[in-house]
Amino acid sequence: MRWLVGLGAAGLGAVVLQVLAEEFRDWCPWLAGRVIRVAVRLLPEAHRARYQEEWLAELAQLPGKLAKLVTAVGILLRARQVGGVLRDRRVGGVLRGRSIPGSGASILVFAVAAGATVEAVLLLPAAAALLSRGWRHDWPPAAYAAGLVLAERFVVRVPLQKHRFSIGVAEIVIVLGVVFIKTPLLVLATGTGIAASQWLFEPQRVKRLFNVPQYMLSVGAAAVVSEQLIRALSPSNPALNTPPLSGAGNFEPSLTVLWVLGMAAFFLVNHTLVSAVIGLSVGQGLAQAWLRAAPVAAADWAASTAYGLVIAALVVDRRAMLLPLLVVPIGLTLLGNRAWARSLAQGQRMHSLYQAGRALSDRLGDLEAWQAFVRQVAEVLNCEGAAAFLGRPSDGVLEVIASDGAGDRLTVTPSPVAWEQAAKGYASRSNWERLHLVPMEAEGRTVGYMAASGPRVDTDFTGDDRESLLTLANQAAAALLNEDLYREAENERATLRDIVGHSTDGIYTVGPDRTVRSWNPAMAALTGYAEEEAIGQKCFNLLRARDGRGVDMCANDCPILAAARSAHEEVRDASVLNKDGRARWINYAHAPVVTGDGEMEADVVVVRDVTRERPELNSSDR
Amino acid sequence: MPDEPRTTFQTLQVLKVLLEEPAARHYGLEIAKQADLPTGTIYPILARLERAGWVTSDWEVAEPAAVGRPRRRFYRLSADGAEQAGLRVRQAQQALTPRSRGLPRLKPRGEAPA
Questions:
Q1: How far apart, in whole angstroms, are the C-alpha atoms of residue A144 and residue A189?
Q2: Are strands A570-577 and A516-519 parallel, antiparallel or unpaired?
Q3: Taking each helix axis from N to C terminus, what angle separates A205-233 and A104-131, rounded to the nearest 10 degrees?
Q4: Nearest Cα to A456, choosing from A376, A356, A384, A365?
Q5: pTM of the predicted model as reported, rounded to 2 decimal places
């Protein structure tokens, strides 16, 4: 009885399962649609409609219900990757778009924003109290905020022949604010001014979101540090209590050091925040990102601080004798330029090295490629000129290729010592100053010399420059040897073409689909099919090979396919019909060309006419 | 200028399919099938190629009611893409192709054929 109940239950279970399975299958298309809708939510909003329509259309064409669901899940698993590709664009040079949602950089941006909001809320009562003290207190913050808006669009750039000379006006305005405006008002005016400038001029939402709190926190740090230092070291100073610009008492030369220290706090906070967000965006450590940009940022900060303090002194005292003090910020700007030039050279060096190498390896033996290469050398080293001296061991000719387009051919004793002397002499005659010459070496041989002259940043080439020149010289030497190898290979290829072209044996090659790829003159003579007739045809249509019993070998026992299977040579005899229908006996050998994963890439076939050795076919047609 | 896409093995498979008929228009699942790749894999690759300008895509012109199915998104190689793809595929093939072991050997002359 029990087994009867068990059997019934099992049967019922099977039916229920069957019903459930069918029900599930019917639900699959609906589920697939839901999965696609979830997948498109992982894409940027602008692309969702397109991909939803595209993917649903693809699913609609799939025959099975379950297949639709499986495919939809496959798409869902890769949707985040598609979203990443669609978002992968640099945002304002600071943040990568893909790092916005949920990434460390985004968290930092929001943390900075939250910190600045707390700062603003805490400072509001004090700011409100200060604002009620009359117009002499009220107009400087308003002018400062307006100055920040204008300064955002205003960078002083003086065109110089070799370097940039640019001064960030916003930082100068901030220095004036730190000197003349009380901390609570200064921070709130900074927030207002930067927010207005970002809203007006900054197209990237992420930068808009980041820059306002970044500057509020940095300026807050500068104001608090300088104010606290003044309170501690000079508590009776009128700058603490008098309204700004009320007289000469506002600006005390003795306080300059304290304001510089305050601006140092600004630099530390500002540069750290920017470095952190850049480091998180590009996957670089904070210390590395901080140090990499520090020389340029510090030089710019120092110059702006000096300009700001000199201008503040001029505003208060209006004495022409203060003007010579501008030498300090101008000198700092020049230092910044040098740091910028170094940083730029460092940053671009790897890229330029790569490009320089490619220029040569892409176009071996091309004079224009060599000229492009020496121009790259001059660019990488940021110097006036560069040249390659390419030696020819056979006759001692030294080919000169210079970055300014000049070229020459010197004939000297074919030795590295003579080439070096000749290169130095050429450089001297060309008036190349501050020359640095390195040998071009590859595989233990000196094949020429590479020269660079007239470094633009320093008085002489630095150790880094010399090392880079050596790397480039060795790269060029390798390219020169590759040129020789290329020529050798070309010669070998020409020789092979001659051999194949003049061979009395027929030689042809076919692809894995048995399409003829090459056909030598002996094959043309043997079969009657010219090269242009044979190439692109299936070999079995041209040869119609049969064995001694008259069996069609191409259909039943194709030696090409046999060679592909075995990956070994196959040697056979066969009778073939030529274009005129005449039978010939041939002995032919197949050698497959096999790829690394064992697939046949091509088959080389050598054919010999052995009709004379087959008495039954001599002077008779089949 | 857009970045060049990474040419992974799977990307090469997709490029090979597109190169077989450069002027033809292909839809996603068709490419996946011909390239023998899992369905989902194809879309990040196509998005990357499209972003690099190697591939262009557009909607099928036919009316869905007339063809009895939703309109498809078609992909095809751009002129620049066809050139770049051809280059990459050839480079990959050259890298994979070992040198021939030389010409095959024939029997010495005069030996009786089989």
A1: 7
A2: unpaired
A3: 50
A4: A384
A5: 0.39
Highest mean pLDDT: which range of A225-234, A425-434, A563-572, B19-28? A425-434
| DSSP H or E segment with residue A185 | helix A183-201
> Which of B31, B106, B109 is most worth mutating to test chain A (most A CB atoms within 10 A of its CB)?
B106
Q: How far is CA A541 from the centre of its chain?
A: 51
Nearest to A57 among B72, B98, B107 (CB): B72
In the block, which residue shows the tokens 């041939």? Answer: A586
Half-sphere exposure of A161 (CA within 13 A, CB side): 3
Three-state secondary structure call for residue A229: helix
Cα distances from A86 to residues A425, A444, A551, B101, in angstroms, run 57, 49, 60, 47
Q: What is the pLDDT of residues A146-180, one digit of tens each?
A: 988 888 666 666 555 455 556 678 888 998 888 88
**Distance, CA of A89 to CA of A203 (rounded, Å):** 14
Cα–Cα separations (whole angstroms), residue A344 to A196, A273, A403, B76: 31, 22, 21, 39
Write the burial class of residue A508 (CB in 10 Å: 0-12 exposed, 13-18 middle, 19+ buried): buried
Interface test with A, best of B1, B36, B39 (most A CBs within 10 A): B39
> A385: part of which helix (H) or strand (E)?
strand A383-391
Main-chain dihedrals φ then ψ at residue A543, nearest 5 degrees: -100, -35
Alpha carbon distance A166, A158 (integer Å): 6
Task: Please name the helix (run of DSSP H) or strand (run of DSSP E) that holds residue A270, with its range, or none.
Answer: helix A256-282
Respond yes or no on whether ipTM tops 0.95: no
Q: What chain B residue is nearest to A596 in terms of C-alpha separation?
A: B96
Q: Which residues contact A133 (CB under 8 A, 6 or more apart)?
A: A243
Q: How many residues does chain A have?
A: 622
| Residues of chain B numbered 41-60 and touching chain A (CB < 8 Å) | 41, 43-44, 47-48, 51
Contacts of A616 in chain B (CB under 8 A): none
